[in-house]
Amino acid sequence: MRHPQMVAAGRHYGCQVVSCVPYDPESKGGAEATVRIAKADLVPTDAILLPAYDSFADLADACLTWCDAVNTRRHRATGQIPADRLDIERTTLHVLPAEPLALALGEQRLVGSDRTISFQAVRYSTPPGYTGARVWCQVVGEELSITARTHSGDLSEIWRHQLSTPGVPQIIDAHYPDHPDGRSVHQPRLRPRSEAEIAFVGIGPGAGRWLKEAGPAGAVRIRAKMARAVELATVIGSDQVDRALGLAATAGRFADDDLVSILEHLAASKPTEEVVRANEAHSVQSGTIAWQALDQQSTATRKLTED
Hints:
By secondary structure, the protein is an alpha+beta fold. Helices cover 38% and strands 11% of the residues. α5 crosses α7 (222-236) and α6 (205-214) runs parallel beside α8 (238-251).
């Protein structure tokens, strides 16, 4: 009895799947010859290919190069070039279906609401737009190929992941453009209630950005700083204060005098193209380069004393 999927695959590609007689190797056709040829010609050897390869993709490319080389030289038995012979045989071959049978694409998976699939107990992310869709997964060398029906209706490979192990999911940040840095799309909304809050938010969008960044940064005395910003906006104008608040939010500067310092910087018409946010990799403290000059002076004084 033949498996229905194998029968469907044979019918799809225009061939017939023939079963062998149990325990009769001679009735199996060319299966053993195919394996023998693959072992002799495709497995890396000193005579044909390189001794080792960095990845399966490099081996596949080398095999294609080798096939091109042998198929363009004259065959010893037939005296013909295989590539030319194939052009003649193509005239008698039937046309294959435009799309492959789904069975040939691998195992079917359903893309979850988190845009991932599970394959061999490992989570793999998929590009946006395939949530709830059925995709096919197939191991190709050291990679997992994910195929899906695209928006145009064609079956196409949408992504390739490096194979991983359980507990080490393969999540690509580019698959979540609406979730920057892993954060949800739901950002806090400003809901000013008191007159002071309404006046501060009314300065401009920079004020709202400052308020959204100041909270997670753990800034203190926020209400006093908001009142100070409103006073400054009344004196020098909302545009300048709003710009300064936006720069403060970008740079993560929420200290008491930071807003005034930025306003003075803007008043001096100094450039603000590059805004550096203080973090563990960047310090705004002055360095110790001046100590080198002090050390050199001490060395010179000691040398004169010795002389």
